[in-house]
Backbone:
């Protein structure tokens, strides 16, 4: 499919066919969604589908995960008319932050961080800030769990998570729209 073409029949998820398959060998299971972002209608329809389960949720802020989540998350935030807060790889923010360790898909220990001056209680016109966390894909859930912990540790509530692709336990990435309200399946007992 031409990356910029828009089919006349745009069924739900039509844009997922724009995601390019892995061409870098077996150690790279993810799909490349950059073609989806090049197509204005595809990106718009994708964001609409990601937001559908959250129509009745009061979302105050969109939190996005470094780095590809920034692209999708900024489109979601703009569509909602809400702000965008970045959760970055450790060391990338030059202000006071809070950090959280996690294990990635290779079992390497990594760390993400978030600025401390946005999610503070009392800085918003609501008693508890409601956030939606957006990322491009979820592999093992480690980064998403770390993001949830960072947001909740600062007193905000995660109303849900949204991603374009999720990798299963066999390392197979399925292009799908994945949304979870009140991401309880991502919480660990610790």
Residues:
């Amino acid at each position: 499919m031409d990356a910029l073409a828009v089919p006349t029949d745009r069924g739900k998820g039509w844009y997922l066919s724009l995601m390019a398959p892995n061409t870098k060998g077996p150690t790279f299971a993810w799909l490349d969604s950059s073609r989806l972002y090049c197509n204005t209608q595809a990106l718009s329809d994708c964001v609409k589908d990601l937001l559908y389960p959250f129509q009745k949720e009061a979302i105050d802020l969109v939190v996005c995960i470094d780095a590809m989540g920034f692209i999708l998350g900024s489109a979601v935030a703009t569509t909602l008319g809400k702000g965008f807060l970045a959760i970055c790889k450790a060391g990338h923010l030059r202000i006071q932050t809070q950090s959280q360790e996690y294990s990635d898909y290779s079992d390497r220990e990594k760390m993400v961080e978030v600025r401390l001056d946005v999610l503070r209680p009392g800085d918003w016109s609501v008693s508890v800030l409601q956030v939606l966390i957006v990322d491009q894909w979820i592999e093992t859930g480690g980064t998403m769990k770390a993001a949830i912990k960072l947001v909740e540790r600062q007193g905000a509530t995660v109303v849900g998570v949204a991603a374009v692709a999720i990798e299963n336990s066999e390392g197979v990435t399925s292009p799908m729209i994945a949304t979870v309200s009140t991401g309880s399946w991502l919480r660990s007992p610790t």
